[in-house]
Amino acid sequence: MRTEILAVDREKPGEGPIRRAAGIIRGGGLVVFPTETVYGLGADALSPEAVRKIFQAKGRPADNPLIVHVEDKKAAALVGQLDERSRRLMDLFWPGPLTLVVRAAGGIPKEVTGGLDTVAVRMPAHPVAIALIRSSGVPIAAPSANRSGRPSPTTAGAVLEDLKGRVELILDAGPTAVGVESTVLDVTGDHPVLLRPGGVSLEDLDEAVGPVLLPTGSEGEGRSPGTRYRHYAPSLPVILVEAGKARAEGSHLPGQRARVAYVGMSPPPAGVMAAACFASVEEYAKGLFSALRELERSGAEVILAELPVGEGVGLAVRDRLARAASGAEGPLDHWP
Description:
Elements (H helix, E strand, L loop, with lengths): L3 E4 L7 H12 L4 E4 L4 E6 L3 H11 L8 E3 L3 H7 E2 L2 H10 L4 E7 L5 H4 L4 E5 L4 H10 L3 E2 L14 H8 L5 E4 L10 E4 L6 E4 L5 H8 L28 E5 L3 H4 L10 E5 L9 E4 L3 H15 L6 E6 L6 H12 L11
Parallel strand pairs: 1-9, 2-9, 4-7, 6-10, 12-15, 13-14, 13-15
Antiparallel strand pairs: 2-3, 3-8, 4-8, 5-6, 6-7, 10-11
Helix pairs in contact: 1-6
């Protein structure tokens, strides 16, 4: 399959590229499109055959549910069963990086829900995404546009690295603004449960509809995209270090035993061969996935990653790094 890339203006996407992309969606094909968080791999959410193509292109486990992207709250009501609390959250945070897990409405394929009775739905805050959904005339199911387990793509170039020849069209509107995926909030119970931290902070959710609970054990696994399996991982092992301790932990670098790269907000420890440093936690979130992809091409054997403080979007960065490091094994086997 030949993968075509069409450049589109973020604020005023041209009718030609949007019509072409919408035609592919209506025809049961795959289109990569930008959102404010990351690039998504989209298909008609009402077509089981089209949705199955997403899983094939990504190499994604079939029991991992997808997020359904809609153009407005009225469309969301056709996808899921909304109550007063979910509507309040939509009023406060939509369009934006908040995904709500609600009871699924009839007609949503099990391929979208992972066989569950719930569905994840959100309205993206990106003019290109909204234009595509409206022109397609259907809700669009879309996980991140990368091979399963890889760092999510925040540029069209990163999409091409993973999915060239696997999708028909990529709409390129430049780098995404947030950089980490949406917050996923389960609102099916007595109290809302944060299944995945993301672009909307836990603090803001607490203020809006608190108290917001955190899942215990494996409670959230399976009900949210991006939580059941190892995600966001570069090809190198990722070793984690707490905020502000990178230089101190750097004293444990084992000389010639390993070539080490670094990503974080603090100055890197001496001896690293490549580094990506960010001035704020917001910039860290925006640049994290691109940095991981760059560092894996640096010739390093392992990436030392600084965990930011778990507040605001820092909680989402910590979550993504923890999942990227999950099960990692590498040359720094004695790292404290």
